[in-house]
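Help! Submission page says 'invalid entity' but I think these are all valid:
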Amino acid sequence: MKFEYLNPTRLVFGAGSLSRLGEMAGTYGKRALLVTGGGSVKRSGTFERARNSLADAGITVFECEGVEPNPRISSVKRGAATARDNACDLIVALGGGSVMDASKVIAAAVLYDGDPWDMIHHGQPQPHVPTEALPLITVPTLAATGSEMNCGAVISNAETREKSFVQAECLYPKVALLDPELTVTVPKDQTAYGVCDLITHITESYFNGTGDTPIQDRFAEGVILTAMEYGPKAIADGNDLNARAQVQWAATVALNGWLSAGSGSAGYPVHMIEHTVSAFHDITHAAGLAIINPAWMRFAAKSNTAKFVQFAQRIFGLDAKGSDDLDCASAGIDRFEAFLKSIGCPTRLSELGLDDRLIETYAKETLRIVHDENGLLPGRPAMSEADVVGVLRAAL
Amino acid sequence: MKFEYLNPTRLVFGAGSLSRLGEMAGTYGKRALLVTGGGSVKRSGTFERARNSLADAGITVFECEGVEPNPRISSVKRGAATARDNACDLIVALGGGSVMDASKVIAAAVLYDGDPWDMIHHGQPQPHVPTEALPLITVPTLAATGSEMNCGAVISNAETREKSFVQAECLYPKVALLDPELTVTVPKDQTAYGVCDLITHITESYFNGTGDTPIQDRFAEGVILTAMEYGPKAIADGNDLNARAQVQWAATVALNGWLSAGSGSAGYPVHMIEHTVSAFHDITHAAGLAIINPAWMRFAAKSNTAKFVQFAQRIFGLDAKGSDDLDCASAGIDRFEAFLKSIGCPTRLSELGLDDRLIETYAKETLRIVHDENGLLPGRPAMSEADVVGVLRAAL
């Protein structure tokens, strides 16, 4: 194990925390850009509570609304322009992963004179790695991406049909304010997608890691078990505040670095492939993950059998004949896919109306955006274009 | 779950990391006070490698050596005076928990004009809560206290026979540099004590928590299982670098807040009791913990049975008749005590030559230093003086 870890975000967790937004924000600025998505935070009254809390703390609020589910660089530019025009010194993200991701890049774009798209990986090398950003406070309104407590963001470019990411230390939020009460109005399907999203974040580092990382493995398994226990409860009864809290905490730790620190993850192949598919079709990110992840698992289990056997044993209590028992590994993947179906996620591309026409294009495009020095998609194992096509075909 | 969490320490982990000390230190200062303990870092050559790495980065090094195993406030004062006299702008701790704890308080004492003992809790209220400190880099040479990546320190006062703690955000190290190679020379007994120390840190928050914290429980159990698997390997073969690395990682996450965030721990009763006993007899901290923890567990299991049943099931795979199965809970505690014995820890006060003469004094003194509004020692359950006496008698 050889690694570096840093996460300087202050976490404030608990029902009712939204009322502390102004107090938290006051430490960092006086003029806040409040970024939101499609309008549900206004309908639910959350927006007004957030704005009032900021106003009570003497903070002037400017708005950037309408960030899309797959947030676009055009929204980033619009938000950055509003922040600049009004001399904002603080960004507050109130919404889901897309709002938080857009807010991170807005926070950096305000202090960058070039084109904000320069900051997003889209073929090597990255033209501009951000090194400074306005202070950011994240207030997630659903449990899914974990964006609230990490330094990554995924942004789409509608013109070039690209969807890719940026990761930089300056993008860590100063404060992540997690109030599970805000998530009780999330509908069943979005709740299920959140559970799928967070589990997929975990399986990516779990299965693509170096192995011999016992603590990281136990952490990952613990969060998956918890998400599989409390996720269905939150879906069945949206007002179950304890289930909402457990799922939200699971989503945050799934991607704040605690599980992946030292795991030596070689890459995030499922996410990389999904990004391409959703760049072409604007599908819900977690629906894409639910479809691609089990297909990828069946591919990866052939060469990394022992880890998939461990997964089958510790998550589903299955018996194995040995660490090379591919039948046990496969049975674990079947059980995982069945869980995704049981909470209402699609597990085939055809369920989204997609067929095989563009499969080669998705694969080529995925590898164009991210590849190692051998031209392969990083992961365990690294994937050729044919491997990606094979996984996508298996997911038809 | 309602909590706040922050840990801004940058972690650099891996065999060979010591060579990066200068590079890391250069970000924070030009004149470093290098704090060490009893001399083993000089005999092993680690001190010279650290000093050279700092010198190569253009940093002038001043020394504070001879910090005691239970670090004294007198050493803190001596270190702070050296740092002030030489206008140090950075503290580097190279040693075990005592060196790191002393270094934290030195870092704050340099910037505080009053008596540094003001900063240590010793009866309410605390005269001075530190709010600023020089930047600190920790380089642990053994895996035990987890002090490398938290903001707490425990300091003793030989004159007043007090041993107590301070916790403040300004005491977080800027960098924790963990090089498992530095721990291969740690003798068997100290390695075992480190394993006991780290597990006790975990059991304190695990058993004194609010319950219904499934993720925190899984994390805690995962680290305990790992420490029980790799600890004996590191004891059996000190040169097993992977075992050393796993134990070191376990010690760090045991007390960096990841396991306790949101667990709602009511207190650290085992530590509080041990602090008093070792303030009187200068015993090895972890030896005291190995003795007091099983005795405390038997006391606490009577009222918090379900959690001890979970421990017995998940750590030792024991079967339970139900969550109120005190026999199962007790069997788990027996197995835990047997593990401590198996790695060479004492489990009775008599093994350290201590008898019952001062038991009432220890109990009174423990409660004088830390008590809740009802005069009880915080924990689950809160303890009266008679409860503390009972636990200590059971540990004779």
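Support: the input was valid. A stray whitespace character was the problem, and the output above is from the cleaned input. Chain A has a mean pLDDT of 96.
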